[in-house]
């Protein structure tokens, strides 16, 4: 994930219902699919009481295309119907970054 | 966390060492301290193989002040010495957001 150009992050925060049948399969499937999308840069995910998935993209256009991907649209709909009590999506422009490695 | 004005997110992604003695106490302490800072808007956190903490701020200036807070500086140093193998910090401008609630 090297970059000089500005890039974008989508912060997806969610809480789940008790019915998570099929959820982890779909999550894996969507992660695999995201990686094939134009402008995809990376993804990071963790879940405890709240789930946070951050995906990184080259442009707002790439984010829009991914949002409108037909398989992804189906997953989003099933998410609202079945898996999620609540979610929030924030589209962000990464202004600056730094890293530490031991 | 209502807002009309643009605001900022700090995405802190990390992997830990095996020596996490004192980590969760410090994490709680820093979360409590962050909440008292000027310009603080909210925080969300989850950890599995990777930890993701996203904090939200009114301005870049508020983020800078929080980064330079003396207790926080001490925690950052101890983090690099003891708890973290790797971390990455991304300062982001939230461009757009939407929410779903069941």
Summarize the structure.
With 102 residues, chain A is an alpha+beta fold. Chain A contains 3 helices and 4 strands; from the N terminus they run βαββααβ. Chain A has a 4-stranded antiparallel sheet with strand order 2-3-1-4.
Largest sheet of chain A: 4 strands, antiparallel
CATH architecture classification of chain A: 2-Layer Sandwich
CA(first)-CA(last) distance of chain A: 19 Å
**How would you classify the quaternary structure?**
homodimer
CA radius of gyration of chain A: 14 Å
Low-confidence stretches of chain A: none
> What percent of the residues of chain A sit in helical stretches (DSSP H or I)?
25-40%
CATH domain class name of chain A: Alpha Beta
Global outline of chain A: globular
Under CATH, the topology of chain A can be stated as: Alpha-Beta Plaits
SS content category of chain A: alpha+beta
| Number of beta-strand segments of chain A | 4
SS element count, helices of chain A? 3
Pair of chains with the largest interface and how many residues each contributes: A-B, 36 and 36 residues
**Strand percentage of chain A:** 35-45%
Tell me the layout of helices and strands.
The structure is a homodimer of 102-residue chains.
Chain A: E1 7-16, H1 23-35, E2 40-47, E3 51-57, H2 60-68, H3 70-83, E4 84-101
Antiparallel strand pairs in A: 1-3, 1-4, 2-3
Helix pairs in contact in A: 1-3
Features:
homodimer; 102 residues; alpha+beta; Alpha-Beta Plaits; 4-stranded antiparallel β-sheet; 35% helix; 42% strand; globular
Task: Describe the 3D structure.
2 copies of one chain form a homodimer. By secondary structure, chain A is an alpha+beta fold. Chain A has one domain: Alpha-Beta Plaits, CATH 3.30.70. Chain A has helices at 23-35, 60-68, 70-83, and strands at 7-16, 40-47, 51-57, 84-101. A 4-stranded antiparallel beta sheet of chain A has the order 2-3-1-4. In chain A, a hairpin with a 3-residue loop joins strand 2 and strand 3. In chain A, helix 1 runs antiparallel to helix 3. The longest helix of chain A has 14 residues, at 70-83. Chain A is globular, with a radius of gyration of 14 Å. At the A-B interface, strand 1, strand 2, strand 3 and strand 4 of A face strand 1, strand 2, strand 3 and strand 4 of B. Strand 4 (84-101) of chain A pairs antiparallel with strand 4 of chain B. Chains A, B: One of its GO terms (molecular function) is monooxygenase activity.
